[in-house]
Amino acid sequence: MSQFECEETCMTDERVTVVGGGLAGCECACQLADRGVRVLLREMRPEASSPAHRTSGLAELVCSNSLKSTRIDSAAGLLKEELRRMGSVLLDCAERAAVPAGGALAVDRDLFSRHVEEAIASRPGIEVVRGEVTSIPDGPCVIAAGRRFPRPSSISLVETPFRFSTRRRPSWTHPPSTGPLSSPSRVTERGTRAIT
Q1: Cα 61 from chain centroid?
Q2: Quick check: helix, strand or coil at residue 15?
Q3: Could you tell me if 193 and 160 are in contact, meaning their C-beta atoms sit under 8 angstroms apart?
């Protein structure tokens, strides 16, 4: 079994909802679709927006058009090389939309967004639905949304399974009392994360 194939517990027949059409959400949707997983990509714009957004395009860069250094001896450059070797779709889009920026990768924002839109549209396994998401969707989902997504304090109780894994590493790598999900979440006996 390759590193990208799911274990028997992986729900490959179900569609995965990815909430957020930014950089992380678009990369996630492409990677899942390239591995045969059907994806529902949810993006709030143009129905809802933020003061920073000016278009309804996917993966819109709102702060800076620079993706930082390309030098392999810098953290940002090393990360780009790792992403390149792992087949990052958005890094390829960024490199095709590059503008002169010395030793950095800077992009034409509009061209970059168009390249990402084309990458999403070219994958028949991805369905894009526009409109604000106000609660965590049923079924397998990835939350790759920004500040407008409801915070855990506004959700009374949510249980989400974390059954996606590979055979090479456990699906839960931190003891329940430590690690990133220990507060405000708790781990239940069934292996779900409960946000209170």
Answers
A1: 15
A2: coil
A3: yes
- 107 C-beta neighbours (distance < 10 Å), count: 22
Burial of 3 (0-12, 13-18, 19+ CB in 10 A): exposed
* Percent above pLDDT 90 for the chain: 53
- Supply the pTM of this predicted model: 0.71
Beta bridge partners, 126, equal 39
Q: What is residue 23's three-state secondary structure?
A: helix
Residue 48's pLDDT is 72
For the residues 154-169, what does the mean pLDDT come to?
44
181, 171 Cβ separation under 8 angstroms = no
Residues 76, 126: Cα–Cα separation, whole Å: 29
Asked if 40 contacts 129 with a C-beta cutoff of 8 angstroms, the reply is yes
**Look-up of token digits 């002169």:** 100
Side-by-side strand order, sheet with 158-161: 158-161, 192-195, 185-187
